[in-house]
Every structure is written in structure tokens, then in C-alpha cells.
From TrEMBL, chain A:
Protein keywords: Nucleotide-binding
Domain of life: Bacteria
Sequence similarity: Belongs to the MoaD family.
Species assigned in the record: Nibribacter koreensis
Protein's recorded name: Molybdopterin synthase sulfur carrier subunit
Automatic annotation (TrEMBL), chain B:
EC nos: 2.8.1.12
Keyword Protein transport: no
Catalytic reactions on record: 2 [molybdopterin-synthase sulfur-carrier protein]-C-terminal-Gly-aminoethanethioate + cyclic pyranopterin phosphate + H2O = molybdopterin + 2 [molybdopterin-synthase sulfur-carrier protein]-C-terminal Gly-Gly + 2 H(+)
Keyword Electron transport: no
Protein name: Molybdopterin synthase catalytic subunit
Residue spans crossing the bilayer: none
Quaternary structure note: Heterotetramer of 2 MoaD subunits and 2 MoaE subunits. Also stable as homodimer. The enzyme changes between these two forms during catalysis.
Pfam family, one: MoaE
Phylogenetic classification of the source organism: Bacteria, Pseudomonadati, Bacteroidota, Cytophagia, Cytophagales
Family: Belongs to the MoaE family.
Pathway stated in the Swiss-Prot or TrEMBL entry: Cofactor biosynthesis; molybdopterin biosynthesis
Organism: Nibribacter koreensis
Alphabetical list of SUPFAM superfamilies matching this protein: Molybdopterin synthase subunit MoaE
Length: 79, 139
């Protein structure tokens, strides 16, 4: 599973995308969030961290599939 | 009829926005231009860098535009946001609303810029003399 990174999450990881190994078997947004917190503790310090699935905001219960476009959305600051 | 112009661009163009908004039935055109300010967090700002998750940002802006159109009688609207490096004074966002009367134009324009700042996946990094910060990232 490949995850698009933006803003501060891109800097925290040090890459534009993050690959989650398939054996992690992440099924939901909540599981992905837990995995991110374990591997990148600095993400827990952000004001918020939304996760988008196929370019829509997703809630924690939503299922994720490997062919979907997943992105991390740290606190936005446009305008 | 095409009634909304929504784009992520390298440079926002006020003339383009105004031309698009002109319409015989519009009695008022309201334009908001957001620009780079020279001071933030108690420090002098040198420049800003904006980045967007463009496909999602466009979708979110379209949702806001549709929400505005449902609430107010809007003839045409424009939402333009720039990405990349921006220096002090440069325009980075343009919101424009044309309506028969000014009340709807003012109110919808305010709604669109306020909501854009809350939900649209665009990020800005502020560069000061000695460091840089992703705005809003930390409490």
C-alpha cells in the first residue's frame, strides 16, 4: 500500500510517499493510523491528522484496499 | 451554463477572475484577494511556500462552491489558489462571487474563503530569517 504525503508529514517521513508492506495487512483507516503512530511517533504531536481515501476525507471505520489512493492530510493552512 | 471557475495555479490572476465573473444579471461582484503578509508568529516573514493535494483540493473547493450555490443566489463564482513560492505582497488566493445583489455576494465570498481555510488540502510553510514552520501543524 502506497500512501501520499503532504506538508509536514512529507518532512517527517523524508519522502513524498510511504510504502506499507502488504504483510502488515492493514484493513481500516484506524489500523493505518495506529501503524503510523507506531512508526512515526512525531505524527502524534500534530494538531490533527486526517486520512483521505480516493481523495475524500475518511473516518476511522472506513475500510482501505490496496488499489485505493490513500493520503495523509496534516492540518491544512491554505488561503 | 458554466458558472464556476475553480483552479490550482502557479499564479492567481485577478483580471481572469474579474472577466469570468462579469454577467449582465450580476448587480454586484465581490472579490477577495488573500496575499502574503510580512509578519507572523511575532516574526518577520521572508516568503511562503504553498503545496496542494490538487485532485482532492479541487474536489473540496467544488463542494464548497456547490454549498454556496445552494444557500445564496449566485450568478457565477471563482476560486483560485496558487501553489509554489510566494513573496511578501503576492496574491495567493482569489475568491469571487457575482450575484444580482451585493448581500449574497459579500456573504458567499466570506463563506467560501472561511471554509477553504478549514477543509481544502492546501498547506503553507512560513519562512522566517532563521527557520521555517508548517502553519497550523502543531497545537
Amino acid at each position: 500500500m502506497e500512501i501520499l504525503l503532504f506538508g509536514i508529514t512529507r518532512e517527517l517521513v523524508g519522502q513524498n510517499t510511504l510504502t506499507v508492506p502488504p504483510e502488515e495487512n492493514l484493513q481500516t483507516v484506524a489500523q493505518l493510523r495506529e501503524w503510523l503512530h507506531a512508526h512515526f511517533p512525531a505524527m502524534q504531536k500534530l494538531s490533527s491528522l486526517a486520512i483521505a481515501v480516493d481523495s475524500e476525507y475518511a473516518d476511522d471505520a472506513q475500510e482501505i484496499k490496496p488499489n485505493q489512493e490513500i493520503a495523509l492530510i496534516p492540518p491544512v493552512s491554505g488561503g | 451554463m458554466n458558472t464556476m471557475l475553480i483552479k490550482i495555479v502557479d499564479h492567481v490572476d485577478l483580471q481572469e477572475a474579474y472577466q469570468y465573473l462579469q454577467d449582465p444579471s450580476a448587480g454586484g461582484i465581490d472579490l477577495f484577494v488573500g496575499t502574503v503578509r510580512n509578519y507572523a508568529q511575532g516574526k518577520d516573514v521572508v516568503k511562503l511556500v504553498f503545496e496542494a493535494y490538487a485532485p482532492m483540493a479541487l474536489k473540496e473547493m467544488e463542494k464548497l462552491a456547490q454549498a454556496a450555490q445552494q444557500q445564496w443566489p449566485i450568478t457565477k463564482l471563482v476560486m483560485l489558489h496558487a501553489v509554489g513560492e510566494k513573496l511578501i505582497g503576492e496574491p495567493v488566493v482569489i475568491i469571487g462571487v457575482a450575484s444580482a445583489h451585493r448581500d449574497a455576494a459579500f456573504t458567499a465570498c466570506r463563506f467560501l474563503i472561511d471554509e477553504l481555510k478549514k477543509t481544502v488540502p492546501i498547506w503553507k510553510k512560513e519562512y522566517y530569517q532563521d527557520n521555517s514552520v508548517w502553519v497550523n501543524a502543531h497545537p
